[in-house]
Amino acid sequence: MAGAYKREILDQLWAHGVQPAADTSPERVHEFVNDLYRYELRRLRDRLVRREFQKADYYALVVEVRQRYRVLALKPWQWVAPAAD
Asked: Range of 66's domain?
């Protein structure tokens, strides 16, 4: 890896229970967090099908999940600080 994970990225990852080692590639962590995000969206859709909430509320719940995974808006290479030479 070219640099260390940025502190704000680590804080957001920790909120999802993800604590990458210094040698864990950002691409691998990004893929893992993306899988968590997709899992939560599938769970939400399943709850909609079971009619646990109104369809009109679905959009707001999806936005809420999306807000919790803001870290995915960044590319993996943006998660690390440039290496000092």
From this structure: 7-18+25-74
Question: Which residues pair with residue 80 across a beta bridge?
Answer: 5
How much is the mean pLDDT over the chain?
94
Please give the sequence-ordered ranges of beta strands (E in DSSP) within 1-85, or none if there are none: none
The answer, yes or no, to whether residue 7 has pLDDT greater than 50, is yes
48 in any annotated domain: yes
Q: CB-hemisphere CA count at 13 Å for 10?
A: 11
CB atoms inside a 10 Å sphere around CB 3: 13
Model pTM score: 0.87
| Element (DSSP H or E) covering residue 17 | none
CB 1 within 8 A of CB 23: yes
